[in-house]
Amino acid sequence: MQLHFFRSAKRWDSALLPIDDNTFGLILQFRVRLVRVEPTTRFFMSDTYATGNGRLHDTYGTFHLDAWTNQEWESYKTNFVNVVQRHWSDKFVLDPDRAWYRPRMGANLTSAIIQCGLSIELVETSAQAHQTFRIIHPRENNFRSYVEMYNRTGLFTHLDLEPQWGGGRLTRVGNARHSIDFLQTTINHEFGHTLGLNHVNGVGNSDNNYGITLEQRENQMGLGGRLTTRHGRPWLNSLVDRHHIIPERRHLPEDRVKFTARVDSPQLIEYWDDDWQPTAAATH
């Protein structure tokens, strides 16, 4: 078994590092450029554009841009890193289906697990960056932030780092439909797209793509913030597609190792069922 510790790519780099005889860390490493958009900024990004007159236009309407103060901008940059890393790093473990790692010559094979980390380094130029995100400060609070996954870019607002309640969404709960309020931090949902994840019900922005049932809609790639084993797929893909682990002799059992992702972090309930009713006590 050959191990390649560092791999580079356009969307992010990755590092597979031994922690002890039974544990590795697989870290997805992002270099991110955050672009401060002012009322005088001119840019064109798909169907969204600004011509420097204090207004931003996209398919959902026209938005008025406010200026950033230096303090606001520096705080945003720091919080961006903290919020995304806190949500996505150290939340998953990749479990092997067999012993595969020999920590040193003559040692027995171990079933070493792989802990999944994520790190963000802010950079100053797009040439340095894996991802470039424009950040706007609109007066209106209904701009729909988005990521262009394959262009390695996105457009977010100053409000996207804070959890927000989305209220009154009719959602299937068992055989009934309830009005549910979901709590979600937009930047964590959008960074899921940066990681290559689609909406819980597939590609698209229709209401159904964000889920139909309560289980689907509370998902991070639905309307909520709940992580599932599916969200560990970017680490699995990096492990396999980037050949961090390369079999030497495929007839050996350890060279046929396969990994599966599991969530290794407590999950909060981040929704409120407006129509919930306590179950009537059984009578005897």
Automatic annotation (TrEMBL):
It comes from the Bacteria. One of its GO terms (molecular function) is metallopeptidase activity. InterPro entries: MetalloPept_cat_dom_sf. This is Uncharacterized protein.
